[in-house]
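User: structure tokens for this one?
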Amino acid sequence: MTLLILSIVVFLASLGGLILLVVRKFPVLSLLNVYDVKEQAERRVKRAILEQRMHRKFSVTIRTALQKIHPFVHWAREKFLSVKEWARALEVRYQQTLEEERRRVIPEMPRSVEELIEEGKKQLERGDDAGAEQTILRAIAQEPRSITAYKALTRLYVSRREYDHVREIDEFILKLDPHQAEVYADLGTALTALGESALALDALEKAVMLEEENPKYLDQLLELAILRKKKSLAKETLIKLQEVNPQNEKIPIFVGRVQELPEKEGGGESAR
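Assistant:
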């Protein structure tokens, strides 16, 4: 019986608390308008749609404008580049005029043959063949017997493949000093290019006589001896090359080419 009464008291207390909560919150609940919530949601959706539409229109407008001004931008870029080139050419012309005026007002101090040769080599490295030739010729004018200057001039003509000039200069150098193995080898290369293989062979033999253990000269001599079908000379040169430079990868090829040479030696190419 006591338990029943206790249960009834608890139920009534809970019911009273619920009624009190409803009474207190009723003014707030009465102010809540479900229609306002729906209108706000609709406004947000409309705003989002409007923003997307404006964004699309703005993008289309920008693309259209860019398409219209593209030819102008291209034209402006070309004009800018042409003006830039013109300004660069004007600056170069100004520097040249300034240098010419400086040389006229302040005479250039004479330079030594060695300095002129070095300057000529630098000009050649920069691709200024005409300037290099002029500078080296100035060095030769100061020292007509300068072998170093003539060698520098030879390098210039080799780079141009003007082998007739190379031949002329090398022969003059050898008159000044007949013990220049490097010059004999260069002369051999020039004569080969000019079709004078017999004279080239003679020049290369002299280069090897001066420097018997130079693998480069031996290689050149062997190549030309095979070309002119000089089997005995080719075999002799091959043996020297094997002794001096056994790691040479071309040796097996040379061996085969020498073995294929006829026993009767010929003149090879015509020696003019």
